[in-house]
Amino acid sequence: MAKHPVPKKKTAKSTSKQRYGSFKTRVLKKLSNRVNLVDCPNCGAKAQAHTVCHECGQYRGRQVLDKQKKIDKITKIKA
Ligand SMILES: [Zn+2]
To answer: What are phi and psi of 59, to 5 degrees?
Structure first.
């Protein structure tokens, strides 16, 4: 005889679909809780901790991304 656990009844399609249907939202929720958002000390925008602020391009008081250069490039192409 079978010594391992045997299910008494077949699992209906709808039951398994319900179970796995919420998988994506659950994973996304978990990931969003993991990301640590902090206020940028320079501009105050929400930025990921220990990374460059994408609003002003500063990291720990240093200018890392040159935002002004990008703006100049865009305006040059248009003009
Ligand atoms: Zn900033």
So the answer is: -140, 120
SS3 state of residue 37: strand
Q: How far is the CA of 25 from the centre of ligand 1 (A)?
A: 30
Give yes or no for a contact between 50 and 42, defined as CB atoms under 8 angstroms apart: no
Q: Has residue 64 got a pLDDT over 70?
A: yes
Identify the band that residue 74 occupies on the pLDDT scale cut at 50, 70 and 90: low
CB 46 within 8 A of CB 39: yes
The Å distance, Cα 46 to ligand 1 centre, comes to 8
d(CA 69, CA 65): 9
- Token readout for 26 is 């659950």
Q: Distance (Å, rounded) from C-alpha 31 to C-alpha 48?
A: 13
pLDDT at 79: 52
Q: Which amino acid is at 28?
A: L
